[in-house]
Amino acid sequence: MKYKAIALDLDGTLLNSKKEVSNKNKEIIMKAAKAGVKIILASGRPVPGIKKIAKQLHLEEVGGYILAYNGGMIIDCKTGEVVRRETIPEKYYTDILRCANKFNVATLTYDSEGIISNDENNQYVQLESKINNIPIRQVFHLDEEAQLDPPVKFLCVGDHKVLRNVEAKLNEKFNGTVNVFFSEPFFLEIMPQGIEKASSLEILLGSLGIDRKHLIACGDGFNDIPMMRYAGLSVAMANAQDETKEWADYIAPSNDEDGVAVAIEKFIELN
Which domain of life is it from (predicted)? Predict the structure, then answer.
């Protein structure tokens, strides 16, 4: 089978434990790109947190795509074109903030540069900044600020027990019109309904004229299972969740052992 595209999760997959792209992974990915394979960085991260990695891989030159927020936004690295953008309806912003404030938890979202938050000193806001290596901008009225650049995602952060109350209140308020879920015990995500990596990959591959059987998907987490089920070939890292491994056609070495590079060299003919 000739594979024409590869979708790479970042944290726990392409990035090692130090949140870095190893020289080996970088070298092999660039070889694949030069051989005509479409490189797709598919992550739950926000756009600014993925752009830095795309830059390290020179995707603006060799070509490639950012699939951010688990697929809520797709960007062509070479042209800057936005292929897909699903945003939370503006009418919900104030209700999200009111609900979070009621339980005294911090909220954040993103602009083109990084994080915007109503509590820049919160430990979990700081953690999100550190994970993505992006700055935080403190704002007074987060709902009004968000309207200037409608976001794909809001994040309520804090103690899990308190966030469970926020989750219940938001679900009661919105009645399934938005997706409210935990990505970590301390991260409660609010996103448009129907956003996941597989549906976004279908949109992107459709625009590129590539059949899904020509797609490789590499991941380690639960949110990677939909794209692994969708792809022609699914690869799980050795460090992946057990349930994720169950959907893999191939188990690659861990993210600290250049597993992505090993998988590419095994399944893609490099010039």
Answer: Bacteria
**pTM for the full predicted model:** 0.92
How many structural domains are present in the chain?
A: 2
Q: What range defines the domain where residue 115 resides?
A: 90-192
Are residues 75 and 207 part of one domain?
yes
Determine the pLDDT at residue 160: 96
**Runs of H (alpha helix) within the chain:** 23-34, 47-56, 59-62, 93-102, 123-132, 142-146, 160-174, 197-208, 225-230, 242-245, 259-267
Which amino acid type is present at position 89?
A: P
pLDDT < 70 regions, the chain: 271
Task: Give the H or E element holding residue 216.
Answer: strand 215-219
The tokens for 4 are 């024409």
| Phi and psi angles of residue 66, each rounded to the nearest 5 degrees, phi first | -100, 125
Instruction: Write down which residue in 192, 227, 246 finishes a domain.
Output: 192
Residue closest to 5 by CA, chosen among 47, 34, 33, 46:
33
CA 5 to each of CA 59, 64, 193, 215, 264: distance values in angstroms, whole numbers, following the listed order? 14, 9, 26, 5, 11
Q: What pLDDT does residue 1 have?
A: 77
Strand pairing category for 136-138 and 65-68: unpaired
Residue 144 is predicted with a pLDDT of: 94
Whether residues 37 and 120 fall in one domain: no
Residues 77, 6: Cα–Cα separation, whole Å: 15
Tokens representing residue 35 in the block: 């051989």
Which residues, at least 6 apart from 54, have a Cβ–Cβ distance to it below 8 Å?
Answer: 41, 60, 64, 66, 77
DSSP per-residue letters across 159-185: -HHHHHHHHHHHHHHHTTSEEEEEEET
Which of 80, 8, 44, 72 is CA-nearest to residue 259?
8
